[in-house]
Amino acid sequence: MQKRLKGKVAIVAGAGSTGVDGLGNGKASAVVYAREGASVMLVDLNLEAAEKTRQMIEQEGGTCFAFQANVRQRSDCEAMVQKCLQEYGQIDILHNNVGVEPKTFGGVLNTDDAEWDRVINVNLKSMFITSSAVLPSMLERGSGAILNISSVSAERLSPGLFLYCVSKAGVNTLTKAMALDYADKGIRVNAIMPGLMDTPMVERHKEFYGGDREKMRQLRNERAPMKRMGEAWDVANAALFLVSDEAKYITGQVLAVDGGYLCKP
């Protein structure tokens, strides 16, 4: 196997998976990075989930370690950077995967200030904090790649998901603004917008389908132009390209990994 990330060090924020044993986008990306030769710091609020990812990587012979952090807290992110530099001596890649959905589906009048703050802080502010913690090290080295995980919801609005849509639209703008600010410093910033994915995070959507998970999966598959949902590996493989040197002239881009979903009228 070609080691496309040989000698690289990656921090994956949100490297565990919802439900611990599932396979989400962050977990899959961390595994792919390790397979391609990167040393990976697995960051998650749920240390047990990060440890599950560590076990998966180490069983394949990869190099990694798990670290518990709340990426909404600057002190935790600063400790994250310090620990990574202590263990590996450098930071080449920051993969921001942390995200949540609103606790309830609804519009402005169904959302209180606390819920607004929770979703915006997790989905958007956390990426600002992790990036600002990592950037000094990248600037010192004169290189680096930051990848933010957004969503097609940033561009394709859905009734009842206004807060999630707003937060992900913010991620896209943050990505482009950072890319412009640091392009001449050797630092690239891109984002991925997953579409209809078959990952643990969508499990709660079954409430829209009377609690029937199989019905939910069937109808979500039908909504996708390719007539199937994507997998976490689809996001991971796109992420690998964007953080690798093969994408050295790509920055400020927001890539839809959606099976053509955004092409639908």
UniProtKB/TrEMBL annotation:
<dbReference type="InterPro" id="IPR002347">
    <property type="entry name" value="SDR_fam"/>
</dbReference>
<dbReference type="GO" id="GO:0048038">
    <property type="term" value="F:quinone binding"/>
</dbReference>
<dbReference type="Pfam" id="PF13561">
    <property type="entry name" value="adh_short_C2"/>
</dbReference>
<dbReference type="GO" id="GO:0006633">
    <property type="term" value="P:fatty acid biosynthetic process"/>
</dbReference>
<comment type="similarity">
    <text>Belongs to the short-chain dehydrogenases/reductases (SDR) family.</text>
</comment>
<dbReference type="InterPro" id="IPR036291">
    <property type="entry name" value="NAD(P)-bd_dom_sf"/>
</dbReference>
<protein>
    <recommendedName>
        <fullName>3-oxoacyl-ACP reductase</fullName>
    </recommendedName>
</protein>
<dbReference type="InterPro" id="IPR020904">
    <property type="entry name" value="Sc_DH/Rdtase_CS"/>
</dbReference>
<dbReference type="GO" id="GO:0016616">
    <property type="term" value="F:oxidoreductase activity, acting on the CH-OH group of donors, NAD or NADP as acceptor"/>
</dbReference>
